[in-house]
Amino acid sequence: MPSRTDDEPTEIPTLLPYLALIDVELNPRRFQWRLVGTHITGAMGYDYTRFYFDEKHSGPALADLIAV
Fold first, then answer.
1. 4 lies in a domain?
2. CA 40 from chain center: how many Å?
């Protein structure tokens, strides 16, 4: 996976609608949507940007999302 410093969004403007960036916190382990592209937001029906996975999902849905 590329690191945060490897990405320059201005170099890939056509890909931005399809891009999702996720921050990982280790202790406790949590995942936060840092950026969710407009195409993904449209497909999901909600803009998850800045939400933690566990703020919007629980149970098997949360487990499946974390597994991916």
1. no
2. 10
> Which positions ≥6 away from 46 have C-beta within 8 Å?
56
Alpha-carbon distance of 14 to 63, in angstroms, equals 31
Mind listing the pLDDT tens digit for each residue in 41-65?
A: 999 899 999 999 999 889 999 999 8
Return the bridge partners of 50, or none.
Answer: none
Report how far residue 4's alpha carbon sits from residue 41's, in angstroms, rounded to the nearest whole number.
Answer: 21
What CA–CA distance (Å, rounded) separates 37 from 24? 18
Number of domains composing the chain: 1
